[in-house]
Each structure stands twice: as structure tokens, then as C-alpha cells.
């Protein structure tokens, strides 16, 4: 029986508003880091694409680190996760919508609340999965 469910975290990263894009980008990343921490505190293991900004720090010096390559790498983790957790605002993100579509194609359930995700985990434990 699995004791920890691995969650792929989905939400908006790229700025979409007309306000300061740098501030919005950092704010989105902060919300993703907070979401990951909340999931960890609830007992989940988290794959957190919001931490990809660390690759961006090096991207200017390494042409290998493209946005497309990083996104492709992230998407490869979805089928390896037990669930997808959706942060508020995920629908406004093209990338997030693509991640949800990939999860659905892989049969990975998506949740918008930690309570729903926790109930799912508890059901899986009861069923011995």
C-alpha cells in the first residue's frame, strides 16, 4: 500500500496581465512554491514545475536549456505521478491546460482542493492501492 501519493502541481507561471510582468512572474512562482509546501505538509510528495525558474537562471549561458525542453521534461513526469493538483487560476494558463490534458490522457485524476486530494488518498489506502 502506498503511504505517500505523488502529486504534479499545476498552475499559472507565465505572466498574462498588463501589470509588471517580472512581478507577476515572481508572484506566480511564489504561489506555486506555497502550493507545493501546503501539499507536502498534507503528506504528499510533490513534483513542482514552479521550481523550474532555477533552470532559467542558467538558460542565458546554456542554449540547451530552452523553455520547450524544460516543458517537455516536466510533462514526462505527469504519468509518473498519482494525481495532479490544480492551483487557483490554472485555467488562464495555456501550459497548465496542456498539463491537465496530458493528465487526463494518462488517466491521472486532477484535484482543486487539498481536502478532495486527501479523500482520494484515503480511498486509495483503504483499497490497498
List keywords for this structure.
129 residues, alpha/beta, Rossmann fold, 5 helices, 50% helix
Task: Describe it.
It is built from five helices and four strands; from the N terminus they run βαβααβαβα. Helix content is 50%, strand content 11%. The protein has 129 residues and is α/β, with parallel strands linked by helices. The model has no long low-confidence stretch (mean pLDDT 92). The longest helix has 21 residues, at 21-41. Helix 4 (94-105) links the parallel strand 3 and strand 4 (110-111). It has a four-stranded parallel β-sheet with strand order 2-1-3-4, sandwiched between helices. The protein has one domain: Rossmann fold (3-Layer(aba) Sandwich). The protein has helices at 21-41, 53-59, 67-77, 94-105, 114-126, and strands at 6-10, 45-47, 83-86, 110-111.
Mind sketching the topology for me?
Blueprint: E1 6-10, H1 21-41, E2 45-47, H2 53-59, H3 67-77, E3 83-86, H4 94-105, E4 110-111, H5 114-126
Parallel strand pairs: 1-2, 1-3, 3-4
Report the major sheet.
Answer: 4 strands, parallel
CATH class: Alpha Beta
In N-to-C order, the SSE pattern is: EHEHHEHEH
Q: What's the total count of β strands?
A: 4
Average of pLDDT: 92
Strand order of the largest sheet: 2-1-3-4
Uncertain regions spanning at least 5 consecutive residues: none
Query: Under CATH, the topology is which?
Result: Rossmann fold
Provide the β-strand percentage band.
Answer: 5-15%
Please identify the structural class as seen in this structure: alpha/beta
| Radius of gyration using CA atoms only | 15 Å
Distance between the termini: 5 Å
Helix percentage range: 40-55%
Total number of helices? 5
Can you tell me the number of structural domains? 1
Classified in CATH, the superfamily is Hypothetical protein PA1492
Overall shape: it is: globular
